[in-house]
Amino acid sequence: MAVTAARTTRVTLPLSPYPETAIEARLRYDSTDPYAVSLLFPPLHPDDDPVEWWFARALLDEGRRAPTGGGDVTVAPGPGATVHVTLCGRTGRAVVRIPDEAVAGFLRDSFALVPSGAEPAGADLDAELARLCT
Asked: Membrane-spanning regions, if any (predicted)?
């Protein structure tokens, strides 16, 4: 049975033209994919799709304390009790500043569902195979 943890919080994009403008983002964990978390941004315009990035839960946890990651996603402690998640894609790079208390609370909730090291037990392999084969 799938269980989820989610937390909606206000984030900023410190390297954007509007570094102090807060937008809503949602951190989400689903036990059917126990190693991953998602960071979801709502659509900017009514006809747009939301933007969702998936990356390792361990990356988010470790990045709260020290810079980590490579490739498309890196995570590092930011100034003033924040966490910086850097997302690199085909169209560019964005740094997302998330309050550390939101990240810590979200991770606490996700680890209560599936503790670190117990991820394989939380995986619903049949559901993942069915999803991949459709």
From this structure: none
User: Where are any strands of DSSP class E within 32-126?
Assistant: 36-41, 51-56, 68-70, 73-78, 82-89, 92-99
Q: pLDDT per residue over 74-133, tens digit each?
A: 999 999 999 999 999 888 899 999 999 999 999 999 999 988 887 775 455 556 556 556
Reduce the DSSP state of residue 26 to 3 states and report it.
Answer: strand
> How many CB atoms are closer than 10 A to CB 3?
13
Give backbone dihedrals phi and psi of 28, rounded to 5 degrees, phi first: -140, 140
Structure token pair of residue 42: 């709502």
Distance of alpha carbon 128 from alpha carbon 38, whole angstroms: 16
pTM for the predicted model, two decimal places? 0.85
* Distance from the first to the final alpha carbon of the chain: 20
Q: What is the edge-to-edge ordering of all strands in the sheet holding 36-41?
A: 4-11, 23-30, 36-41, 51-56
